[in-house]
Each structure stands twice: as C-alpha cells, then as structure tokens.
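Here is one chain, start to finish.
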Amino acid sequence: MVYKDTAEKSGIQHICTAEEEIFADPIKDENVNNMRKSSYGEATILQQFSFSWMNGILAKGASKPLNEDDIPDVDKKESAQYISRIFSNIMTNVKGSLPLTVWSICKATFLLVWKKAALNAAFAVLSVVASFVGAYLIKDFVSYLGGDSGFERGYYLVLVFVGAKAIETLAYRQWFFGSLQVYLRLRTSLISQVYQKVLYLSSQSRQKHTSGEIINYVGVDIERIVNVAWYMNMVFMMPLQISLATYILWKNLGLGSLAGIATTTIIMLCNIPFTRIQKRLHAGIMKAKDDRMEMTSEVIRSMKILKLQAWDIQYLKRLKNLRKQEHMWLWEFLRLKALLAFMFWGAPIVISIMTFASCILMGIPLTAGRVLSTLATVNILKEPIFSLPELLTAFAQGKISADRIVSYLQEEEIRSDAIESVARNENEFSVEIDQGAFSWKADAKIPTLQDIHVKIQKGMKVAVCGAVGSGKSSLLSCVLGEMPKVQGTVKVFGSKAYVPQSSWTVSGTIRENILFGSPFESDTYERTIEACALAKDIGVFSDGDMTDIGERGMTMSGGQKQRIQIARAVYKDADIYLLDDPFSAVDPQTGRHLYKKCLMGVLRDKTVLYVTHQVEFLADADLIMINNNDSCIWIYFKSFYSPSQVMQNGRIAQAGKFHELQQDMAFGVIFGAHFHAVEQIFEVGSNYWIASACHPRTGSKSKLGFIQFMASIDQSVLDLETASTLSESTFSVMQFLGTMLIISCVSWPILIIFIPLLLVCIRYQRYYSLTATELARLSGIQKAPILHHFGETFYGAAIIRAFSQEDRFYRENLTLLDNHSRPWFHLMAAVEWLSFRMNLLCNFVFGFSLVLLVRLPQSFVNPSIGGLVVIYAWNLNTQLSEATRNISRAEANMISVERILQYTKLPSEAPIFTEGSKPPIAWPECGMISISNLEVRYAEHLPSVLKNITCVLPAEKTVGIVGRTGSGKSTLVQDPVMFDGTIRGNLDPMNEYPDSRIWEVVDKCQLGNVVRSTEKKLDEIVIENGDNWSMGQRQLFCLGRILLRKSKILVLDEATASVDSATDRIIQEIIRQEFKGCTVLAIAHRMNTVIDSDFILVLGEGRIVEYDTPAKLLQREDSTFSKLTKEYSQQSQHFKSSKAKPQDG
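Its structure:
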C-alpha cells in the first residue's frame, strides 16, 4: 500500500510504503487491536480443556499464510501492561526500603503467579496419582487374564484403566499449558523490570554494563530464571512420585523393594556434587558469552573503522579467541551433561536388577504380576530420575542468572532530586543553580564542575564555550539531572528539549524521529522543517519525510542526523532548550541558517543554552560562560540583556556579553584562535578575489539488533539445545514405534486400528504444521525488535528522559512484548491442541487393546505377555506426547539454525586474500589513490549517495574535501570511534608501540595533562562508545591513534569539529608536521583547515562538482569552493563587526 500526503506550504511530498520487515513499528493502529480479541479469554471451560478455542486460527493457518493481524490477542492476564503493573506493585511492597535480593525477586514472582501455580499443582498431583493406577492394578489384570474371574471383572478393570488414563491426559495437558502461562507471565514481568532499569540507569551504572550484557540479560538470563518456574512443580511432584512408587513396590515385594529404593536414593543423591560443578560451568559460560557479545556489538558498531584501519583480521582473531574460551566452557558442560544422561538413562535397568536380585536372595517369589507391576513402577519412576538432573541444572543456571539480574537491578538510578522541576509560570527564571558542585565519579577528589552559581532569565540565549574537556557538555548534563550532584541545588522552570553532541535517532522514518511521540500538526511541522533546513533534503528523498533513516541513522549524513535532532527538539515546543554543539556537523551556510531561522527565529522567545566552539555564533548571545580553576562568580541577572559565560576546567571563569569579554585573556584565547583562522582564509583568498573582480553511503541489509539476536540467543540455542532436542526427538519417535510394534506382535488384531490411527496422526500433524510453522516464524520475527529496542533505549536514555518520553518508550516495550507473546502463546497452544488429540487417539488404542485382551480366548494370549502389552500400551500416550513436544521443540530450535545459515549466505564482500593480488609488505609505497566510476548506496532499495566518482588523488599531497551537508563527503570515510577498554588499548589496539611513544602522541594531541591527572594514566577506563570522555577528547584520541600509526594515507573526517579553535590550530600544525610525505584526505566545514591544501575536491549531491587547486578555484568567482569560502568569511566579518561595535545592554 502506498499513500501520499502532500504539504501545500513547502511542497514536500510524504510517501509511506507498507511492507513486512523484521523491525516493524511496534505501535499498531488501535482499530486493528480492537478487532483482535482473545480466543482463549472468551473460551468456555469445555473449549479450554479440549483446546478447541484454537480451531479458528488453525483453520485460518491451513487456508493461507498467517500474518501478524491474524493472530488473536493474549488474554488480559497474560498482557504485558497488566502483568507489568501488577508485578511492579508487588515488587514495591516486597522490597520496601530494603535492598533488592534474589529472595525478594523469588517472593515477588511467587505472589504474581501463585493462584495459577496452585491450580497447576492440583492438576499435576491429579496427573501423577492417575499415572500410578496402571502400575497398581496390573497385578490384578494379569490375574484376571489367568482366569481368576469372569468378564464383568475384566470390563471393570478396563473401565478403571481407561478412566484413569483420561483423567491423566486432561490433568497433564492442563498442567503443562498452565505452566506455559506462568512462564509467559514471569518472562514478561522480568523483561519489563529490566527495561525500566535501562530507562533510569545512572551514568556510573551505565559504565558497568554494556549493551551486549543487557541483551544477554534479556535473551538468556531471564529465560534461565523462568525455566526454574517451569520445573518448580517437580519439586513436590518428585516426593509424591517416589512415595507412590515406594508404596507399590513395598506392597508387591515387601523387603525386596528396599534394594530398589536404596538404589534410587543413591542415584538421586549423586546429583548433588554434579550440580555444584554445573553451577560453576554455567557461570563460566555466561561470563564468556558476555565477553563475546560485548566484543561482537563493538565490532558491528565499529566495522567501518576496522575495515579502513585494516584491523578486521586482528579483531576477528580476538572474537575467535573469545569464542574458543566460551567453547571450552561449553565442552566441559556438555561432557558432564552427557555423563549424567548416560547414568540416569541406565538407572531404571540398574534399579530393576538390584530389586529383582534382592528378591531372589531373600527368596521372595517373582510372579508375573509382581514383575510386571515392578517394571511398570520403575518405568514411571524414570520421570523423576531423569528430571532431577534437569531440575538441578535449571536451578543452578537460574541461580547464576538471578544473581546477575539482581546485581543489575540493584544498580544506582538517576536521582529524582538531582534537579527540582518547577512550573514555568512560578518564576522569572528558567534555570537556577546555587552553590553547585557535580561529579561524574562518586569517589573523585575534585568535582567535575564546582562553584557553579547561575540564574538564567526566561528567553535568554546562553552560549557556553571553552577548551576541550572544560566541562561544557557536563554543564548541560547537570541541568538535565544526568550528572550526579555533590552539593547545591538545581531548579528548572518548565519543560526541556535536548540535542546531544553525538546524534541519536530511533529506527523509523524522518517524520517519526521529528514528532518523537507528539501528535502531527501540519503548520508546526512545516515551520520546523524550514527552520532546521531539512526541506531540500526531504525533497531529494524519493519517499520524502517517510524515508527510513535506518538503524542509528545509517542512511543519513552526519549533518542530516544533526538537523533531524534539532528538528525533534524544536517540534516539541519546550520552554528550555539545551543544544550541545549543534553547528559542528553542518556547513557554514547551513549553520548560519540554523542560527538565524532556528536559534534566533522559531526559538527567539525560548530559553536556550547552547555549547559551541564556533565563535561566530556568540555575538548575539545574551550570556557567554567561561570556566577555569582559579575563579568562580555568582551570576544573577535581572535584565533580559544580561551578560554571557565561558567554561574552563570545570568552573565558570567568566560571564558577560560578547563585547564585555573581548578584552579578557581566557575568552581572548578562544576568540583569537578563531580570528587567526579567519585571517588565514582572507590571506589566502583575498588576492584571488581581487584578481577575479578585475576580470569579467555501503549499508547492510541486516540490523544490529538482529545480528545481536543471532549472536546471543540463536547461538545459545545452537550450543545447548539443538543437539539434545534432535536426539530426544529421534529417541521418542523410535520408542513410540517400538511400543506399537510390540503391541502388534502380541495382539495382531490391533493392526486393524493402528494403520488408520497412524494415518490420522499424520494428517493431524500436517494440519497443525501449516499454522505452527507460521506462528514460529512470527514469534522469531517479533523477538528481535525487543532486543533492538533495548539497545536504542540504552544509548538514548538521556534524550528520552530529557523529552519526558519514558512512559511512551515503556509502553512501546510492552507493545513489543505483546507482539511476541501473541504468536508464542498460540504456538504453544497449537502444540497442546495437537498433543491433546494425539493423547485421545492413544487412549482409544489403549482401550481397544484392553478390550481385545479381555475378549480374546485365554489360550490366545499368555497372561504375562498380555500384562506386558498393557504396560506398554499404558505409556503409549505419554510417549506420543513426548514425541510431539520434542519434535515441536526441535522445529523451533531449527529456526535458529536456519536464521544463522541464511545470514551466512548473504552477499559478502571480496575475500580477504586474493591469489595473485596480494600487495607487497610496504604497500602503499607512494599513497596515490585512483577512484574510477565509484557508485555507492546504503542498501539495494535506496538511491546512490555517491554517483560516478572518478578522480586521482596524487601521492604525498593534501586533498581537502568540502561540500554542503549531505553531499556525500563522509560516505567516503568514517566516524571517530572509541572501543571499550583503556586509553592504551584505544590508541594502540594491536599493542605494537612502547609507552614512551604513546605518551609522545598523547602530548601532541593536547591530552597529556588530562591523562596524567587520571588515576590509572594510560590504563584509565574507556567505556562503550567512549561515553566517559567528551566528544572533543574522543576526537583527539582518534587523532592520536592515527598519529601513532603514521600511515601512508591519512583520512580526517571533521577530525577537529568538536574542539575549540585554539586546539584546532595546534592540531592542524601537528598534522602538517607529522604527515609530511603522506597523502592526506581532510573533510572539513571549517574552511581554514583545508584552505592551504594542495587540492580541493568539492562534492554536491553525491557527485564531483569541482576538483582543482585552491588557487585556481578561488580565481573563479562562480566556483562552489569560492562561494563556500565567501560564506565562511562573511560569517567571520559579521563576527568581526560585532567585536568592533559593542552592543548596548
């Protein structure tokens, strides 16, 4: 379906294409939701017992492939919203003011499901008691076959046998399905708790947990915990089963049963030491899995830089080593599991031998009835014996996982008292900070920010500037309440909107990212698009503002993502705007447009705090902040035209309007460096302008969340479940067929119904499979978005909180959980629907066999053999049920295998090594780059972002790459990336250089003092994405990485966009000195950084617009490069005139 919504004012065309994909919008149309009702919730008691409420969806699945809207809703008591609300209330009451513990989690989960669990327990007890009827009465039935009584006695026994079997079937199926409902409720409740924690994790807590670990919590640990609930019924069922078995054995064999009972006890006690070993091995597996997932997430996220730095092979080796470590733990675990399986599968034989041997030694006669009753009892006793290792394994795994989850849920959250939110109309100020001191580290001796005393009046434009790492972004964080407060008070009057320095977008369309949960209002939307300079970009996209921006905005340029972020903030119509370096990712013309139309236009009546290194955007500010270590001031402004502030080293050094700060030394460093850069442009460009006046993106089809899903959950299924379910399926099928063969051999008339029965079973299986396959597919499809949503929330939690969108994102999480629960719940119900009908057919075979044995002449069947037939027939329904369940589990597990295989068959790049084309060790020797007919697009269905690029970049020359925002510059190269680890590991990932060389590079990058001030120096921690360092510091570290390596070819993509002009000037000089004789490609919006390049490459709309020396391009007044340079100089001229003419205030 395609629809268009054309906006009359701007002429922007909005196109939406509806297509099925793995990451669909979680918020469905309300009308669709209202059309879907819960079939289970509306079912009668009879329909619930027979699972006939599934008939409708099974019939629909048999007639056509199912889609998401064909699946009914889950019952209200299984819905995520209902469960999460109830569980949150229970957790609050259970926990109280005490710390969260494993016990409190267990207690809360019990209170959540105790009613359903109690009903399940009743069904379980009824099923167990009914299952022993056969073993109890088999002796009487053998006696009857021996001619002890008449037909009436035989039919009475048949009636009791069949009745007990029917009760067992009904009770077992209801217990099993009820356990699945408990499983679903617990899984939903725990996932919702983990997601709530993601929304409110403090900055310090985020440093302890990576996104990969959280994915393991959701995808693996929670599954392990709810598995414990699955096995909980066995805790009281086992004593009941053992007690009943003991009673029957004692009744039949007397003292002879003691040997069998003792053997059973010894075998079960053997589990204790093995359980301890399993617990240790499982802890090792989970730790290894966390390490592998952390590395996997980082590699996927940083793939571009790994390729460009030729580190992909080394990182692949690291991943293989991590997988090898995980494999070692898995191998030990699976070997122990195989040993336990061997022991416990052989246990019934050992028990039988010991029992019969003791009877022989004691002289107890072993009649046919006694032997068959004993065999039947031991056969039933197999279940607790086999289940005990699984139970203890589940408890061991669950305990480890529960400890991990509780440890995570205990982490510190953002403090609600960090800021005091006050209604906008209650004060003339927008922000008040009194005696503020803030620190990112709780144990830091010196706070990150200190002596902050600020009162900002409504409507003020406050600019914050200063050197790299001086605390500019931290100041915004303390206003947001993100930065831990050491002392003081922070008051915020009104709503907030926040634009972070690192762009953050959600998977979806441009429009969805701009609206960000707000209702669509055409006029406001059009004004926002225009103010944020997005109209031209949207007009270029074939789908308009319905263009999918991809995961993490992969299909957008850095400038486009930045403007979408700004548009998101503008559209919110907040009272206070916090913009962190909003102009760094855009070209001068776009920056000027944003400044005039957005900052000083649609936001003219709003309070705006904006961080910037671009001094040309300071002249009109009402307040500029400067910080240093030697001074602090109190700022209290009653006039609207109050001064401005500059930051340095975590303190507000100065504050004033632009003209008041011009003569100050600290502000002069920033201003002077910028003005020096402007003069450089004028110096190079003026001669050419005077002279001329005298003359007439590769995208991936797979998404990060989906790959993480495969690497975590699918790989875990492959490691621990697939092989065992396949073997169990094979064994259970063979066991069922063997039982039918024995029954047929003894009582051949059974073949009269066996063949039709087999045909009916096959028909039922095929009918069921049509729907079950689709339900399994949809269940798998709807699970990956849950993990993806976790990842997006983890990275964007600060923005979500700033926009007060926590409730909306939490509701989206609940919707995603329901989207997964619906197909999963109905898949499990479909399995029960099939199993119930298979059980009924087997019960019919069992009853028919008993009637045959009763009606056949006594001479036709030996009583002992007849009793054996009864024992086998008694277990027929259980065997068929196990076979059905195991086959269903195997099919579900094979979906994980199929997903991994499909992913491995996706089109790949060229092989790492090509025979006959291996470059020499010294390659590249000269550094020349030749590009011929290059065309790049982010995905097959998207338009090309680079078109027919053909050029030669000469060796040992510097080529400046310029162009408007979105012209395709960064598609050629990469983003600055930092890895989880240490400073040393980020600068020297391959461990190739000595510390002396690393320190030399750190000093050259102007980071020496910062690194030396840390506790661990070069071993100081760098968390995921480098979030514990400022953006400017991250860029400098990335520069240090390339300075250390000194490659023949150097690519700089806005390498100093987030640093101040003074630092930029120093870095540019270092690059010129260090990379003499190298080929340098420099992308920049600051024209001073490329004006002295040997060549200039100008891109526009993905094509080469111009390519020549700066001198020749500046000679042509109509050249794009000349226009860009003029635009930059015009901004600087305005800046210079503002400096010369102080404003009144």
